[in-house]
Specification:
By secondary structure, the chain is mostly helical. It has one domain. Helices cover 73% and strands 0% of the residues. The protein is built from three helices and no strands. It has helices at residues 2-7, 13-23, 28-63.
Length: 73
């Protein structure tokens, strides 16, 4: 249990990876796979959020048209 508390102050991934490797619970290939999956999920969620924001903008443009003197050229 004491070793777990040694990790709580590690803020940088490299330092955490080195500490986990010393304990024997770190596998670089697993961490690489998890990182790639995380990036894929993040990209998918960003795409989903961007699409939702575009739909909201289009809806708001239809609901709240700009007055003629404030239209963008």
């Amino acid at each position: 249990m004491r070793r777990f508390w040694q990790f709580r102050n590690l803020r940088q991934p490299a330092a955490l990876g080195a500490a986990l490797a010393q304990v024997g619970i770190f596998d670089p290939l697993i961490m690489q796979m998890l990182n790639r999956q995380c990036e894929t999920l993040r990209a998918g969620s960003n795409s989903h959020l961007l699409g939702a924001m575009r739909r909201i903008e289009e809806r708001d443009r239809e609901r709240f048209p700009q007055p003629p003197n404030e239209l963008n050229p």
